[in-house]
Amino acid sequence: MLRERVKSFLRGTRSPEDANSLGNGGTVPHVPSRQARTQAVETRQSRGLEQFFNCFRDQIGLSILDLGGAYQENVNFITNLGHKFHSEDFARIFHETFGQDIADQANPGRIDYFLRQSLDYEAEQFDGVLAWDALEYMEPPLLAATVDRLLHILKPHGYLMAIFHPADRKTRVPCYTFRIQGPRSLQVTQTGERPPSQQVFNNRGVEKIFQNFESIRSFLSRDSMREIIVRKRSA
Amino acid sequence: MSVWNKQRREEEPSGPLNTTVKPAQPALPVEVRKEAPTLSSMSNTPVGRMEPDTSRGGAATIGKAVKIAGQIYSREDLYVDGDVEGTIELIEHKLTVGPNGKVHAGVKAREVVALGTIQGNVEASDRIEIRKDAKLVGDIKTARIIIEDGAYFKGSIDIVKVEPKAAASQPRPQTASAPAPAPSPVGVAVPAGAPDTKR
């Protein structure tokens, strides 16, 4: 086995075990894997992140769900604040379920399967959800169902943070991983590209997506990235 | 004691051989015993015979062709490279799940290192490491956690601060880098009239 792995390495190929090592079976095309070659790393200021954790100021023991997967930095930051960290690798499940098939994102059966795989939690379980940019690659039917589910698993007065790239993109858009470096600092690493959603994420579009939430706060960065924090209504 | 350890003991040569190998240092076996990495039964074995096992620190091993269903309770370190279903309990010892290991079990140990797959809740009183390419699905309760890039984790992480016994009676100031104390009603500091006190 070791000899085969060394041979594969020298040939520049991956063994089937390697290809499936993280997944639950088959290979997944265009998965923005953390193992993928990184294209760009930058550290940026994030007002949205700062405001998100300000919402939980002076509290400990809260449940925070991170949809970006489990990164050491995020685990450290959230647990050092005294909260319980929950992890979902949302992008991975998304690609395992839908791949590049946009039409499938309107299929109720597939949507239900995806939500059972990724957000199968009890009602009102989380005080906060870090969605990062996971929502902006979804087509409208899947996006609406996902936001409904997120609303369902948030506690009353719970908060959700999401990030949207500029609305005027026409071609494939980069996808990122987000690592918390400090209370208002994020390390953003580009890991691949995905086709843009048909959904428009301008002000009006975002308000419509989160219309069942109580309030929306929006923070626009210099590079036109839009960070939003939404709050769930009271019970 | 593991099967492997038992075989090693049976193969162990008698006393005169030791004196032949090291005639000028009669006290050497005692020193070796002191430097042995664990307190398992291997510590009585001459150091030269431990060579095949050093990479796993003298741990008992479940090989990759072995499948076990049931409860495992061990008083020495354990290396699992096969399939285990049930529960694994290693009081004060370390569990390593090898790259081929598949553990569908609740795990309690001092330290857990995952290189393969664990599906189940894990309690590691000291720390847990989830290495690159490892997969862990379950809830974790531990004092420290290390997650390498490329690892897959789905579940929750609850950091439980372990107070040192000597300093247990003295209150310690909380630092930003230290893990926060486990959530408790006593530790919650919510100012009166704060808007989120309902939570």
Calculate Rg of chain B over CA atoms: 22 Å
According to DSSP, the number of beta strands of chain A is 9
Tell me which protein chains meet in the greatest interface and how many residues each side has: A-B, 37 and 36 residues
* Low-pLDDT sequence parts of chain B: 1-54, 167-199
Helical residues, percent of chain B: 10-25%
In CATH, the topology of chain A is named Rossmann fold
Query: Terminal Cα separation of chain B, in Å?
Result: 50 Å
Mean pLDDT of chain B: 69
For the secondary structure, the number of strands of chain B is 10
State the fourth-level CATH superfamily of chain A: Vaccinia Virus protein VP39
Helix- and strand-based class of chain A? alpha/beta
Can you tell me about this structure?
Chain A is α/β, with parallel strands linked by helices and 235 residues long. Chain A has one domain: Vaccinia Virus protein VP39 (Rossmann fold). In chain A, 31% of the residues lie in helices and 27% in strands. Chain A is built from eight helices and nine strands. Chain A has helices at residues 2-11, 16-20, 47-54, 72-80, 90-98, 108-118, 140-153, 203-209, and strands spanning 40-45, 63-66, 84-87, 126-132, 154-164, 173-182, 185-194, 215-220, 226-231. In chain A, strand 6 (173-182) and strand 7 (185-194) form a beta hairpin. In chain A, helix 5 (90-98) runs antiparallel to helix 6 (108-118). The radius of gyration of chain A is 18 Å and the shape is globular. Chain A starts with a helix and ends with a strand. Chain B has 199 residues and is mostly beta strands. Chain B has two domains: 3-52, no CATH class; 60-159, no CATH class. Helices cover 12% and strands 37% of the residues of chain B. Chain B has three helices and ten strands; from the N terminus they run H-H-H-E-E-E-E-E-E-E-E-E-E. Chain B has helices spanning 3-11, 15-21, 28-35, and strands at 60-62, 67-74, 78-80, 83-97, 102-114, 117-119, 122-130, 135-137, 140-147, 152-159. In chain B, strands 5-6-8-10-9-7 form a six-stranded parallel beta barrel. The longest helix of chain B has 9 residues, at 3-11. Chain B is globular. Chain B starts with a helix and ends in a 40-residue tail after the last strand. The interface between A and B is large, with 37 and 36 residues.
